[in-house]
Amino acid sequence: MRKIPTLFRRDPEDRARVTAEVNPGCEWVLAGEGVATRKYDGTCVRLDESGAWWARREVKPGKAAPAGYLPVETDPVTGKTMGWEPMAQSPFAKFHAEALQFHAEALDALESHAEAPADRSDLVPGTYELVGPKLNGNPERRTTHGLVRHAEAEVLPVPQREHAALRDFVLALAAESGAEGLVFHHPDGRMAKLKARDFG
């Protein structure tokens, strides 16, 4: 889990907002390269290769990391360290358990209507967005807690890639569906993000 750069530079007078200037290294987005996917508004979790679940955790400078913490990177500007903590000790553990229960029940229902047993291996190692009624005020408008695999995020057609058009697209997307914004994916692995709240 590396921090994804924001497509546009932050306003030095108001760090919550972006300017129209592209962040260095993100010019490929405005050049029309890569695809855009929906950025879901919940919290990031990870299933590792051994079957253990982790929750994304940010540790501020000078603060102690929680037990079992796996640091990934430290932001040189803010000094915050991004990493993973064991799901069992995360404040999101209860909602994650509910998401897994809902997932299992959905598979059971599918299996009861199928001639062959349902494939129960769809929760593969990788990162997911935990979404639902108790997360971030439920902008995704979910009735139950659930997991959305980032690798299977909805691909969105973005007709124009310039500041004003992207601003309008992201704000309309958030208003219509509760999406947090967009994540752009380049074929070589680079990514850039743009959130509705970047525009204040």
Automatic annotation (TrEMBL):
Recorded superkingdom: Bacteria
GO terms classed as biological process: response to reactive oxygen species
InterPro entries the record matches: RLIG1
GO molecular function: RNA ligase (ATP) activity
Name this polypeptide is given: ATP dependent DNA ligase-like protein
UniProt organism field: Kitasatospora viridis
